[in-house]
Give the backbone structure.
Amino acid sequence: MSPHGNPEVPASSATEINREAPKASPVVEPADIKSSPVVGPGETRVSTSSNTPGNAWGLWEVFVRSSRGLSHVHAGSLHAPDAAMALRNARDLYTRRNEGVSIWVVPADAIAASDPDSKGSFFESPQGKDYRHATYYTKSEGVKHL
Amino acid sequence: MAAQNLQSVPAELSRGESQEQSQEAAQREADGQANFDRVMAEDSRIEPRDWMPDAYRKTLLRQISQHAHSEIIGMQPEANWISRAPSLKRKAILMAKVQDEAGHGLYLYSAAETLGQNRDKMTADLIAGKARYSSIFNYPALTWADMGAIGWLVDGAAICNQVPLCRASYGPYGRAMVRICKEESFHQRQGFEILLELSHGTPEQKQMAQDAVNRWYAPALMMFGPPDDDSPNSRQSMAWNIKRFSNDELRSRFVGMMVEQVRVLGLTLPDSEIRFNEETRKWEHGPLDWNEFKEVLAGRGPCNAQRLERRREAHDDGAWVREAAAAYAAKRQAKQSMTTKEYAA
């Protein structure tokens, strides 16, 4: 027994691996990952509303403004029962080191996202429209202040 | 007009349609695979809603959830010392570190969720003893010097492992790792400082520091996983750009760093076979007891049962908090919808 009643000290020899430890220890199996994923609207694929069976609290996406003058940027997600708790959890989880001056929390299932499979057609329009960029115009090269 | 036609679709036609649908699905899968292969070849990133092979998803889920569980269980050996820390400063530092570990667990659980895994299911698996976590946390933290050795060696090994994971091909995992690595370096430095103070203290304190290093050295080296010729999943993980360096490569790098740092501490590593191989340009170390590694991983380490029991207790003890928060949220929502009705009326 250690002087502080340290529960880390096992009852048997402290410094050795206890190979005789009870075999009632947990059965280790690879995590069951067969459950089919549900495609959600945002980044997270799990259906996210708070009443989803198996998930006690709803999922919130967290956006943090790192300093005045900058946009809020997606920092990650967390679970919370309501917006007030989501904000408090977001503060504890994503701004432990002054990473933010403002936080937004958004229910994950309130986010509508573009379909990654259709990116070809969805983002087609700017293709071949180089003339929208200043670099397209080369004749003015060497001309000052242009 | 098309809609009208659809209402009376003959049986043959609807069969034809489903065939068309399965063809479409096959086409989607082929396109998805092509996109996935291109992303791998370009060393770009896969994002949650992209198509990905099932095996890739499973591998990531296994790795990320095990990693998350390790952070959560990893709070225990240190939390035990919060009330036993030798000063208020050390207590505050330890609390901040344990809070970080909780945060790291949550970042990783979030990343795992983007792959379709349910958060509460992951917690349930851990508590039921069905999920794995790093074997290192099944060793006891016997003395205050262990807080130093854990920070220096265990967090040091973790950083060595995790820095390359910042470039993992799965976007959410890489982003979580960037955040974690930023916070982890404070963990290693505070551990080093604890050992440095002890090794420059009384002979008893120095002995305590040496004893802790002696006990944590081999388990920390084993954190990198089995040797390359006994690590069947490594090759595939490297082909998928999840893993960037092999277990032995990372272990060798880590040994090289520790050899330098232990001199500053004025302590020694409990390994007489450490040497720099001039031919391979790699650091080599003495043999490790891989049988012990497998035993601990299989649940027969010194603290496995204790760690899971504590995790279960903590989950049960927190039940009333979760229930109260949910009840409060429901009450607030009911009140709000009543007010909205009043406004409407």
In short: The mean pLDDT of chain A is 74. The longest helix of chain A spans residues 83-94. The beta strands of chain A are 58-65, 72-80, 102-107. The two ends of chain A are 80 Å apart (CA to CA).
